[in-house]
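Researcher: Next entry: YciI family protein (Actinomycetospora straminea).
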Amino acid sequence: MRYMLIMSAPESMVVGGADAPSPEEAFEAMGRYNTDLVDAGVLLAAEGLAPSADGFVVNHDGEQPAVTDGPFTEAKELVAGFWILEVASREEAVQWARRCPIGPGVRLEVRRIAELADLTDIAPAEVLDAEATLRRRIAEREQV
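Model: Predicted structure:
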């Protein structure tokens, strides 16, 4: 099973922000956590995200998609980073999420990543076949 751990925080709590812990402490704690994930063989991906000032939103509400540049001052919390884990069970995902070294004011949302099998009763066979082909192509690209 694959799970995504999504870290959300006010931008002031993110490393370098006004209310954040010292960068040395934060990077050291995250480094230990990420090393533990790699050593356990469960980490598939993990990244921190740049500040919202470097981002943009694409809104599809109108006739043409509208692009709005960051920062996103109206947001109370922003996605600050993520991990993707491959674990044996929901309980294992819970254990890893509990170990994540985030502090007060930071939230970790954990979501199971849908597998093709989750879509068999919903999507038409040709859609499932096309999705399986795309996933094979991605896997082949990663092996190069």
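Model: Note for the record: The longest strand covers residues 78-86.
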